[in-house]
Amino acid sequence: MKKDDNNPFSKLAQPAQRAAANAGIQTLQQLSQLTEAEFMKLHGIGKNALSVLKDDLRKAGLSFKLK
Predict the structure, then answer these.
(1) Is the dihedral of CA 27, 55, 37, 2 positive or negative?
(2) Contact, 20 vs 52, CB < 8 A?
(3) pLDDT at position 4
(4) Which residue, 13, 22, 51, 53, shows the most beta carbons closer than 10 Å to its own?
(5) What is the CATH number of domain 14-59?
């Protein structure tokens, strides 16, 4: 993924961007359909990516799915 202010994943490291892309996750709405645990299982996702995206979800009025 290329740097894009409209892309919430553009702030992440390349491995995390690829992990999201390979999982078909392109929007915060799609991300909110996963639990934190499901997202963390993706290869390339670490604590930093989780922290950044949790903040972005919160700002958008969304959150990770609860079990």
Answers:
(1) positive
(2) no
(3) 57
(4) 53
(5) 1.10.150
What are the sequence ranges of the domains in the chain? 14-59
Q: What is the pLDDT of residues 10-41, one digit of tens each?
A: 999 999 999 999 999 999 999 999 999 999 99
Name the residue type at position 20: A
- pTM, two decimals, is 0.86
Mean pLDDT across the chain: 92
CB 4 within 8 A of CB 10: yes
- How far apart, in whole angstroms, are the C-alpha atoms of residue 38 and residue 61? 20
Alpha-carbon distance of 18 to 21, in angstroms, equals 5
